[in-house]
């Protein structure tokens, strides 16, 4: 499915061996995850000076082995939504490159069930509520 979205390469996070094969191969990881993962394993996939950037909020505080950061001058950052100017630039970029969002939809009357679906990790994509 990632390749259908235009990815050139895909690594399964459900197989520890797949993540292990990526050791030291990535420059940048953007995390949209909302649950806790083995962040130390992700840091190991980064090259020296690599960066792990959060745009989602994991379910609990990060448990990061500092040695993983120091050993390769790796860093962790986060990015909020940002000011209107940046949002406008992002939307213009998406329109120019025909980038669209993949969403699920649910009726507004089922909003609570949709929220629970997101919290339980069952939502495949962002959920849009229809009026």
Largest sheet: 3 strands, parallel
Number of helices: 5
On the 0 to 100 scale, the average pLDDT is 87
| Strand ordering within the main sheet | 1-2-3
* Helix proportion: 25-40%
- What percentage of the residues does DSSP assign to strands (E)? 15-25%
List keywords for this structure.
two-stranded parallel sheet, alpha/beta, 131 residues, 5 helices, three-stranded parallel β-sheet, single chain
Task: Report on this structure.
Helix 2 (39-45) links the parallel strand 1 and strand 2. This protein has 131 residues and is an alpha/beta fold. It is globular. It contains 5 helices and 5 strands; from the N terminus they run αβαβαβαβαβ. The strands form 2 sheets. The chain has a 3-stranded parallel beta sheet. The two termini are 29 Å apart.
SSE topology:
Blueprint: H1 16-21, E1 26-31, H2 39-45, E2 46-54, H3 66-70, E3 75-78, H4 84-96, E4 103-107, H5 111-119, E5 126-130
Parallel strand pairs: 1-2, 2-3, 4-5
Briefly summarize what is shown:
With 131 residues, the chain is α/β, with parallel strands linked by helices. The protein is built from five helices and five strands, in the order αβαβαβαβαβ. Helix 5 links the parallel strand 4 and strand 5.
């Amino acid at each position: 499915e990632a390749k259908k979205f235009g990815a050139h390469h895909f690594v399964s996070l459900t197989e520890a061996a797949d993540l292990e094969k990526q050791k030291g191969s990535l420059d940048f990881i953007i995390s949209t995850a909302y649950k806790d993962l083995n962040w130390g394993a992700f840091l190991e996939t980064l090259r020296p000076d690599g960066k792990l950037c959060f745009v989602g909020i994991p379910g609990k505080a990060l448990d990061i082995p500092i040695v993983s950061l120091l050993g390769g001058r790796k860093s962790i950052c986060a990015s909020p939504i940002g000011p209107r100017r940046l949002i406008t630039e992002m939307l213009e970029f998406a329109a120019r490159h025909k980038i669209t969002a993949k969403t699920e939809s649910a009726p507004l009357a089922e909003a609570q069930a949709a929220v629970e679906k997101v919290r339980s990790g069952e939502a495949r994509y962002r959920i849009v509520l229809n009026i």
